[in-house]
Amino acid sequence: MERLRDLDEAELLARVVPRYAATRGVVRDPAPVGPGDDAAVVAAPSGSVVATTDTMVRGRDWRDEWSTPQDVGRKVVAQNLSDVAAMGAAPTALLVALMADPETPVDWCLGLADGIAAAAAEAGAEVVGGDVSAAGPGQLVVAVTALGDLRGRPPVLRSGARPGDVVAVCGSLGLSGGGLALLEAGEGLQDDAAGAPRGRAVTGLVAYHRAPQPPWGAGLVASAAHAHALVDVSDGFVTDTGRVARASGVRVDLFGRVLREHFAAGPLTLALGEVEAMRQVLTGGEEHSLVGCFPPDVDIASLPGPAWVVVGRVRPAGDEGPVVTVDDEVPDAPGWDHFAR
Questions:
Q1: Which domains does the chain have, with CATH numbers?
Q2: pTM, full prediction
């Protein structure tokens, strides 16, 4: 098996960079200068650049026994471009950094590049460069910086929600968290029960956790519809919606019936049961769907692209301050925290 120690940096890049070439043909404004120089040059038609970065660490953010390198590539793109979308921007470019033990198989690195390229092409972003570095024994880290363009509109901030706004979700809730729970319970990697209804549900949840499918383009749609606030679901639905509530100084009331019937019902309940399914809807992270707060006169059902589902309303903060409630009760719904014990 060929490993990174068998190649020099130039040889590795000669194999990786061509895998990103397909992303150049899918972007609205290709980078004037792409990979190959000391730095890329990226177009910024609106005059503003949205920038974000995210990192994945083997053993912490994925496990090799659960995820293929293609899965890791797709997930790290989803993490970054959902943040771009949550600003109401269109993705333009990605920079990819890889820090790897020299014993890492070359095929793993090429699979990672394939996963990144596939997800970036779907989202309409171009891979314009990055970096590679050796790491210690067993270490493997993937870091991506994503850039976006606002296309002449102001950014959509967490702090813009107003009393009377409609709260809507584009994408799924709980699927990734449910898949992780199944993997941690030792389920989902065998296909002996895949033909049964629960087996199919388990397989689907695990697949979503391994390679999330954000609603590409939904951020632009929300911005065009004059959304007052946006956030992506990365650490948990209640946790991330709570960030909007605190930044905006409002209360967000969620409709439990809608959350149960539209998101918890189906594969989540089939695989995990009703109680755990609802818990994952409220707390599950790495979903990378969008939560938006829209003016009450916006026809949510008519928005183009993937459907938005109305899940709540924004109210003035009461005596308890900025909070999120489900059916007027503050839920016990802790989300993901990188440094929680």
A1: 6-149 (3.30.1330.10), 158-326 (3.90.650.10)
A2: 0.91
